[in-house]
């Protein structure tokens, strides 16, 4: 459940792939080349501010405009393009609502003392020597239980970022560890929507898919944990010397009590029991607000003349709590719903680009070209992997990166006498987990905003995510556990 959306909302059976025989491959990639060139220039030569604070949003819209021009020259009407963009926007309504609630959650969990309590107790348990591999394991357990990498980041992920930052560990490393564990759990949990979607597209059943996926996924997560263990053992931090001072500052600022853990525990229980994510996260906001009145009246009083106004501010706008420790001052701040606006606009603009590209038939054309390289079994796996990676970047949505290759490559796998679980596993290894590595993809935008770390900073350390496609290609190249269809 990467985006906390129900399978019924994905409308698997209604997913259509628009083909346009008028469009050739060179025309299909023109918008992609221009988009990538502008993004690269913005990153490397303009420090990310080519068009101000919303540079990436403008660039995505420009890419969509170029795609629309290509569509006009290939007999695609503006109504078709608008309809496809509208369908994309409808599909992200729930994720946008979740983003707003996560912003509210971060603010209320701060003023109620939930996040400070997590940091306070976490500092006493997690030392720098075990922190990174422990973060992978903790995130994996929560994600398997909830079926959601998004929920994992919004709860324990935020807490682990706080604890690790206080220990002096680079936030990029922490975010990479959290994301690695969260997406391992997301892949392997039967509650995850992508874990249900991939076998549905390939034509196999859920538990066959999970068992077969473990063949590549378990070795990848083991390597990830080993690498983070080596990094932790060689990490130079100043955290140990600062812990007593940090604990003292937190304790003197907030009323710290184990009762505060009731809030995150209730949220996780609700999600595990398959409560709608919006209800579960909304409950977390309301509970945190109540706990703030009970346990942190001094904090509320210091933030505004009215305790109620302080709660409203925490939900909607920026909140900063000052302590006597500079490191904690940076940590104990939240943007509320207002802090999510940049990300929401990025996702909406990405959906414009992806929608127009789909409407003009460019997505189908690119995937068909990749099919031409599938002359061998390894070529078929490689074409599927690159199709998923490309669609995560072009369509900006991990569902499309699973649905389109799933439909386009299904017959090709059957023609090679390959069992459908080969396709479903590859869709997850290349589609689900790499979405978080694309800054303008819905998953990349969400994770970087919630964890407060740019994709560029955590990319290298999201070891599980970028290693997974290589693992599936290695297994295909060496013909390891490649299941063939049994002819009756």
Main features:
73% helix, single chain, two-stranded antiparallel ribbon, mainly alpha, 488 residues
In short:
This protein has 488 residues and is an all-alpha fold. The chain has helices at 7-10, 25-44, 55-72, 78-91, 93-111, 114-125, 128-146, 149-166, 171-188, 193-202, 206-233, 239-253, 262-272, 277-295, 297-303, 307-316, 326-331, 341-359, 362-371, 377-394, 398-415, 420-432, 442-451, 455-458, 463-477; strands spanning 50-53, 319-320, 333-334. A two-stranded antiparallel ribbon has the order 2-3.
What's the total helix number? 25
Instruction: Estimate the global geometry from the Cα principal axes.
Output: globular
Structural class designation: mainly alpha
- Which residues sit in consecutive blocks of at least 5 with pLDDT less than 50? 4-13
Plain-language structure description:
With 488 residues, the chain is mainly alpha-helical. It has a domain at 94-339. 73% of the residues lie in helices and 2% in strands. It has 25 helices and three strands. The chain has a two-stranded antiparallel sheet with strand order 2-3. Helix 20 (377-394) runs antiparallel to helix 21. The longest helix has 28 residues, at 206-233. Mean pLDDT is 86; it is low at 4-13.
